[in-house]
Structures are given as structure tokens and as C-alpha cells.
Automatic annotation (TrEMBL):
InterPro entries: GIY-YIG_endonuc, GIY-YIG_endonuc_sf, GIY-YIG_UvrC_Cho, Hlx-hairpin-Hlx_DNA-bd_motif, RuvA_2-like, UVR_dom, UVR_dom_sf, UvrABC_protein_C. One of its GO terms (biological process) is nucleotide-excision repair. One of its GO terms (cellular component) is cytoplasm. This is UvrABC system protein C. It is found in: Cytoplasm. NCBIfam families: PRK00558.1-5, uvrC. Residues 208-243 form the UVR domain. Residues 471-503 are annotated as: Disordered. Pfam families: GIY-YIG (PF01541), HHH_5 (PF14520), UVR (PF02151), UvrC_RNaseH (PF22920), UvrC_RNaseH_dom (PF08459). Its main location: cytoplasm. Interacts with UvrB in an incision complex. Residues 480-492 have a biased composition (Low complexity). Keywords: Cytoplasm, DNA damage, DNA excision, DNA repair, Excision nuclease, SOS response. It comes from Jiangella alkaliphila.
């Protein structure tokens, strides 16, 4: 591991002007490229205390052996040079959004004498009109099959076309009316080009006028008693309607736009793009990448747009409008990005965050797709047996455990300004969640406080005392069943440790974990270790996982364990921690809803604790209870019309005021 102080530039030698910098390793390979508004300010941040750096940044600066920079005049020049260098050097520490395929387009070869409609991938060619990209080639073929009925343009290969021309007979598509058969002279080159132009116009979004024209022709044919032609036009209109249903209009102004949304966690970011052309969603594309460092969403968007439009060899054209979830915080960087994309497009580009209307709704849809994509990526990763085994082995090696932690328990605390303090315990066995073993705790303040440290200590003391009690019960049952086995300290053969002989079910808290994880850093893990020692389980390892830098903290240690960002072991610990956080938040909201119902309905005649509990069981939350009608409340067992109306009146007198998490600013709507 290299020492960054060995190649740190001398004080005052780094310029304050904007520019682009690159870190190289001992072999001279460029491993990271970045840009800065002020080179001195940005580069100095890499040479601070190593323990304060993001893990991926830590790995980068300790791998590098040299840093160089180039001063430029403007931020636009810095942006251009940055993505040029990234494309040239392919640095390993830069975020790379990659997928495993080239996406297909619907192409019309207007550069040929007889234009052809086809599925096309790869680099774009001059004189060919492209529509898309689409997520799947079959989506293009389905739409094209509908359109060829109305626009019978040639779709065959050059070989098939020439063969039909030689033998004087069209292919099957010519016989069934899905090709105008220019190969045998049914239409000449000009007539066939007119058909191709109509297809291109339709795909560009000029649909309403064309359909109105077909409807007018259909009515005229019917008036002339040419019912066969009228039926054919009717079927053509239906085919166009089906084709348009596959590409539903989402933006009424017929705009061309790319809609970009992100979903991220501490380790990875998923990006989804919807390609809207002529007001219709023509295609969708997604990427998942490892996060290189902790940066705001605006900077992630900037990096992604640079790669999308600047590094994919022109595969994706820059549209007039790009809708994003966030812009770079620095107005100068946002302006530079806009200027660069305008230059790439050769015309004005508007990058903005939609605030209302159809575009805002579409952005939310794309964001939902990004979140689903990230969840699917995690699920696939977690479901792989080999990956789970590697994760457990990496955790064992990193924490120097005697064996892989086949059972991991994680604890998290949730509260609102010190009130309604609750905790969660989630269990992962063999790298997968075991939800039947999840447990909830209401923190009572037995350790002299309700802060996270005292709460963690209380919860773990209670949990591991129950473990000791369960083991003691096993020993007592063994002693009652057989003296010899009891004297040896071993349960009788017919008794299974942790199983209640009366019910045949496992006792609560009966199994000891191979590893305990707490959500937090050094204070939380030290409190957990102290609690477990007091409960008499000092042989069970415990660590803390801090959210900010994903550091793994052993107890009584001044330095965390830094797992590689690509480590499956770190990914497993993060999943366990995130699941504990989710479970704690859910329980906290349930508790808060119950307490708010008790507060709001206090004093309602005939409404005691049992009926309030019945209300919460029926409606689940205060929000749903407020939305319920008197008739719906009256259907709850134990309620009549009079009591139900009293509940409705009491809730109406006290308007809802959303609670806010004072630490995060999150609105906690029950």
C-alpha cells in the first residue's frame, strides 16, 4: 500500500484555476480522472487524514503513485477534457455504467433506392432514420408487423430482394399484403419511397392527421359501396391503434426528451433512462454501477450524462430536453454541462428538473423503475449460493472468526426526538433473511437513558438474558429426564436444545448467533460488547457497521476494519443492517400510530383500550382511520353507529399534523 505523502505536491504548487487531474499508479497507468473548479481545493482533499476518506477514495490514493493536472480556461473545457481522458484511459476507479448488450433500434434505410424497415444494432449510419432504442428486439418486430399492414414498405434483406427480382415472384410478405413488392414492379421507386416517407412521418409522431385521412377514406369508400376497401381501411386503422398502444403517448406536446432517474444506496447506484420521441416512450435502458464515493445526486447525474452522451460512440443521440432528478449544486457546473451537451447536439439542450405535470409524473415512473432495478440486482446477487458462501467466508476472514457466521443477528434503534424508542432484531441464516426469527423491542430506559447507546445496551442485555434462560431451561429438563446426562451437562437424547417440549416449537431467543451486528460506530459496538459480557455471552463476536463510510468497527478498537467496496462480505453486512433499519422504522411507525390514536380519541365516550386496539387492528394506521367513513368504522366488531360517529367527530376536530424526524427532516406520515 502506497503512502500518499510520498507523492503529495508541494504546498502552493497546485494552481487555483479550473482544470482536470489524473492519478496514476506505480506502472504509469491512469487509475482515476477528475475535474475541479479549483484544482488546489479539490486535490488537497485527497491528502487529508486517510481515516476520514471514503473507502473507495482511500483505496485509490493508496494505489496511486503520482498525480498530475492540466489547467484549462473554463469549466466547459474541463468537462470536455475529463470525459476525453476517461474514454482514452478507462480508469478503474471512475464510475463505469455498463450493460451487457447493444440496444436495438427500428431503422428505415432512406439511403437506399428501395428503403427497408429493419431492426438494427451497433453504430449509426448516415442516411438511415433510427427510432428507439427499444429494450427488446421483439418489441420492434411486433410494432413493425402491425405497421407493415398499413405501410407495406420493403423489410427483406438484399439477397431475398434480388432473388425475388430474378424469379419474378415476391416473397410471402408480398402475397399477404405486408410488402408493396417493388422487387417485381408492383410499385416503382418513387411510389415505394412515398410509402417509406409516410412510415417515417408516422414514427415521428405525425399520427393524428394520417389516421383522420384513413377514416375519411374509409367513410368515402363505404358511401361508394366499396365495402371491401372500407373494411381494409378499417383494419388498417385498428392496426395503427394497436401499434400506438405499444408506445403510449406520455407527453402531450410531442417533445423529444430523455428522462433520467437514480436509485442508490451506500454501495451502488442504479440508473434508468426512458427515451421519449414525439411524445412517446420509444425505449428504456438501465445500468447498475458501484459508487466511487459519497457525492450528491446532482454530481451522479452529471457523471452519468457525460458517459451516456460523450462516451458511447454516438450510440445515443442528445435530445432537445433532458429531464433529471437533480442538477449539480454548483450553478457553473450545471451551465457547463448544458453548454457541452448543446455542442454535442449541435443545437440547444435544456437540462432541468420537472416540478409538476406529465413530465414530473413520468420522472416518478422512471424513478420507480430504477428502484425496482436496484432491488432486483440485489435479489439476484443475494440468491446465488456461491456468492453467499463467498460473503460468509470474507466476513470470517475480515473479522478473524473461527468459523463462518452462519447465523447473523443485527440490531437497530428507532425513535422520534427521544420518544417512542423501539428496537429491532433481524436474523440472517446462511446469508438469507429468516423472518420467523425477527423480534421487536420496546425500550424502557432501564440503562438510565433512551439514547442509541443506552438503548443498544438495554436491548442486548434483555436478548442474551433470554438466551441464558433458554439454555438453563434445557439443562433443567435434561436433569429431570436423566441424571447421568444432566450431570454431564448434556441434554437427554430425546430433548433438542431450544425446543419447548410442551409445544414442540423453538423457544424465543433460543439460538445463539455466530455474529452480532449493531447499527452504529465505536460507541454503539462498545455498549453492545459490555451488555453481552454482563449477560454472560462474552464468546459471541460483535461488530458495528457505521452508515457514513460503511466502516466495520470491532469493540474496543480505535481503528475500523475497511472491507473493499466490491466485497461480498461488506454487501452482506450492509443488507443485514438495512433490513434491521427497515424493520425498526416499521415498528416505530406502528407504535406512533397507536399512541396518536390513543391521544386523539382520549375522552370519547365508550371508547376504551380494547376498542382503540380493534380500530388499529382493522385500519392499520391513523392515516387510514382518518380516511374511513362512519359506516366503515361501524363495521368494526364492538362498534355501533353512535360510537363510530363519535370517532369521526373526534378526528375531525383535531387536524392531522405530520411528525418530522428532527435528525433527518423526514416527514413521518403514519
Amino acid at each position: 500500500m502506497a503512502d500518499p505523502t510520498t507523492y503529495r505536491p508541494a504546498p502552493g504548487s497546485i494552481p487555483v484555476e479550473p482544470g482536470v487531474y489524473r492519478f496514476s499508479d506505480a506502472r504509469g497507468r491512469v487509475i482515476y480522472v477528475g475535474k475541479a473548479k479549483s484544482l488546489r481545493s479539490r486535490l488537497s482533499s485527497y491528502f487529508q487524514d486517510l481515516s476520514a476518506l471514503h473507502p473507495r477514495t482511500f483505496a485509490m490514493v493508496t494505489t496511486a503513485a503520482k498525480v498530475e493536472w492540466t489547467v484549462v480556461r473554463t469549466e466547459v473545457e474541463a468537462l470536455q477534457l475529463e470525459y476525453s481522458w476517461i474514454k482514452e484511459f478507462d480508469p478503474r476507479f471512475n464510475v463505469r455504467y455498463r450493460d451487457d448488450k447493444s440496444y436495438p433500434y427500428l431503422a428505415v434505410t432512406l439511403n437506399e433506392e428501395f428503403p427497408r424497415a429493419m431492426v438494427m444494432r451497433g453504430a449509426k449510419k448516415r442516411g438511415v432514420r433510427y427510432f428507439g432504442p427499444y429494450a427488446h428486439a421483439w418489441a420492434i418486430r411486433e410494432s413493425l408487423d402491425q405497421l407493415l399492414r398499413v405501410f407495406p414498405v420493403r423489410s427483406c434483406s438484399k439477397g431475398v430482394f434480388n432473388r425475388s427480382k430474378q424469379i419474378g415472384r415476391p416473397c410471402l410478405l408480398g402475397y399477404i399484403g405486408k410488402c408493396s413488392a417493388p422487387c417485381v414492379g408492383r410499385v416503382d421507386a418513387d411510389e415505394h419511397r412515398d410509402i417509406a416517407d409516410d412510415l417515417v412521418a408516422f414514427l415521428e409522431g405525425k399520427t393524428a392527421g394520417y389516421i383522420r385521412r384513413l377514416e375519411k377514406e374509409m367513410k368515402g369508400a363505404a358511401a361508394e359501396l366499396d365495402f371491401e376497401r372500407a373494411a381494409r381501411l378499417r383494419d388498417d386503422i385498428a392496426a395503427l391503434d394497436r401499434a400506438m398502444e405499444a408506445n403510449a403517448v406520455v407527453l402531450g406536446d410531442g417533445t423529444d426528451a430523455d428522462v433520467v432517474a437514480l436509485a442508490e444506496d451506500a454501495l451502488e447506484v442504479a440508473v434508468q433512462v426512458f427515451y421519449v420521441r414525439g411524445g412517446r416512450v420509444r425505449g428504456q435502458r438501465g445500468w447498475v454501477a458501484d459508487k466511487s464515493d459519497d457525492v450528491p445526486a446532482g454530481e451522479l447525474v452529471e457523471r452519468f450524462l457525460l458517459q451516456l452522451y460523450g462516451e458511447l460512440d454516438g450510440e445515443v443521440a442528445v435530445p432537445r430536453e433532458v429531464l433529471v432528478p437533480a442538477l449539480p449544486a454548483d450553478a457553473g457546473e450545471a451551465a457547463a454541462l448544458t453548454e457541452l451537451l448543446t455542442e454535442l447536439r449541435g443545437g440547444r439542450v435544456d437540462i432541468r428538473v420537472p416540478q409538476r405535470g406529465d413530465k414530473r409524473a413520468l420522472l416518478q415512473t422512471v424513478a420507480a423503475n430504477a428502484k425496482q432495478s436496484l432491488n432486483l440486482h440485489k435479489t439476484k446477487r443475494a440468491s446465488d449460493l456461491t456468492t453467499r458462501s463467498r460473503a460468509l467466508q470474507e466476513v470470517q476472514e475480515a473479522l478473524e472468526l473461527d468459523e463462518p457466521p452462519l447465523r447473523i443477528e443485527c440490531y437497530d434503534i428507532s425513535n422520534l426526538a427521544g420518544t417512542e424508542v423501539v428496537a429491532s432484531m433481524v436474523v440472517f441464516e446462511d446469508g438469507l433473511p429468516r423472518k420467523s426469527e425477527y423480534r421487536k423491542f420496546t425500550v424502557r430506559g432501564e440503562q438510565g437513558g433512551t439514547d442509541d447507546v443506552a438503548s443498544i445496551r438495554e436491548v442486548l442485555i434483555r436478548r442474551f438474558r433470554r438466551l441464558r434462560e433458554s439454555h438453563q431451561a434445557d439443562q433443567d429438563e435434561a436433569a429431570a429426564d436423566g441424571t447421568e446426562t444432566a450431570e454431564a451437562g448434556i441434554a437427554a437424547p430425546e430433548l433438542r436444545p431450544g425446543i419447548d417440549p410442551e409445544t414442540g416449537r423453538p423457544r424465543k431467543f433460543a439460538y445463539a448467533p455466530g455474529l452480532v451486528v449493531v447499527d452504529g460506530g465505536q460507541p454503539q459496538v462498545n455498549a453492545a460488547r459490555q451488555a453481552m459480557d454482563e449477560a454472560g455471552v462474552s464468546d459471541i463476536p460483535v461488530v458495528g457497521l457505521a452508515k457514513r463510510l460503511e466502516e466495520v468497527w470491532p469493540p474496543d478498537s480505535d481503528h475500523p476494519i475497511i472491507l473493499p467496496r466490491t466485497s461480498e462480505g461488506l454487501y452482506l453486512l450492509q443488507r443485514v443492517r438495512d433490513e434491521a433499519h427497515r424493520f425498526a422504522i416499521t415498528f416505530h411507525r406502528q407504535r406512533r400510530s397507536t399512541s396518536m390514536v390513543d391521544s386523539l380519541l382520549d375522552g370519547v365516550p365508550g371508547l376504551g383500550p380494547a376498542r382503540r386496539k380493534a380500530l388499529m387492528k382493522e385500519f392499520g394506521s391513523l392515516k387510514r382511520l382518518r380516511a374511513a367513513t362512519m359506516e366503515q368504522i361501524a363495521e368494526v366488531p364492538g362498534f355501533g353507529p353512535a360510537t363510530a360517529q363519535a370517532v369521526v367527530d373526534a378526528l375531525a376536530e383535531r387536524p392531522a399534523v405530520p411528525a418530522v424526524n428532527t435528525a433527518t427532516g423526514e416527514i413521518l406520515d403514519p
